[in-house]
Amino acid sequence: MSTLPACPKCNSEYTYQDGLMLMCPECAHEWAADGSDEAAAVDAKVIKDSVGNTLEDGDTVTVIKDLKVKGSSLVVKVGTKVKGIRLCDGDHDIDCKIDGIGAMKLKSEFVRKV
């Protein structure tokens, strides 16, 4: 029977140790064996806008470049304000709703925090 703690993310009992880290084979979560929050800092991805400001959920941003909307003839114009953004994983790391266009995803490199 293992004396290792259960996974803090999915509560799996099948954790194993790899060097200084503990790993979960079910959800692939990694955390430090000594209980420090080093792994939490690694998991938290910092998303920055075009000028280097850190973005957070709920921020208001401005589009800095005309962006064509894929699959339609619509264009998001320079200076369009987007309120209440949500950060997500992936290439397009901002999930938002733009007035007149609807829900879409944006890349953080094309916005500036207001």
TrEMBL record:
SUPFAM superfamilies: Prokaryotic SH3-related domain, Zinc beta-ribbon
Residue ranges constituting the Protein YjdM C-terminal domain according to the UniProt record: 47-114
Gene3D superfamilies: 2.20.25.10, SH3 Domains
Pfam families the record matches: YjdM (PF03831), Zn_Ribbon_YjdM (PF08274)
Annotated Protein YjdM N-terminal domain residues: 3-32
Homology family: Belongs to the YjdM family.
Protein name: Protein YjdM
Organism expressing this protein natively: Pseudomonas marincola
